[in-house]
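Possible regression after last week's pipeline update?

I re-ran a chain I had predicted before the update to compare outputs. Posting the input and the new output here so someone can diff against the archived version. Not blocking, just want to make sure nothing changed silently.
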Amino acid sequence: MFLTHAADVLGDTDDGLSGSNIAKAFTGYAFDLNVNIPHASYPFGANVPNKRTALLENLKRFEPKDQYRIIRELCEHPKLPQPVPGSVNNLKIQLIARYADQFGSVTSETLNVTLVEEAKHWLTDYPDSLNLYDSALTKFNNNVFERNLLDDLRLSLELLLKSIFKNTKSFENQIPQIGTFINSKGGSKEFSNMFRTLVEYYSKYQNSFVKHNDAVIEEEVEFIFEMTSSFMKHLVKMNIKS
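New output (post-update):
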């Protein structure tokens, strides 16, 4: 079912790859992986109703781990319409969310691994928040620098604040309480003000992408990821402080 969906998206008339680009890409994969494919040249022939069918029938000849790689790389193909259509980005996100663990995700070489592992450790008792954090990490490790990743990080932090403060307030309405919380745990006034101000600017940054759905910048996502990790690590540590 997923292969059929991938073929429909990547072979879409308006938003997908052309027939010649599909044939060329699969010819390269067939050669590299020593696989015989039914449609190695374009036009595909009278018995093939459309390019989606050719793409699907070619794709089925590969092993699952290679199908994963092929779909992912086709989602990043330089001949796709620019900017890359949302349907293609959604396909890539779905692919990674469902199959990255099974077929091997790419490990980031840029994130502060120690900070990430510490954040995950402190989130152990907050499974809802941890699940969203892991989802964002999977997307980052697979180079999915989309608004969807930022949404996961924001909601992960929001759920953590709701758990710690024991309320159901929105993210923005939690910000004033952060300063009070830090003060109650013995934090300095300066640290409390700085922490609250950083979270406020963090919220404004997130909101700009939620409203405009812009493509995010990789370096900025890395910074936001590590900032979120640091926020959550310190909030949980302070929460267990008497």
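Follow-up from reviewer: compared with the archived run. Residues 113-239 form one domain. Marking as no regression found.
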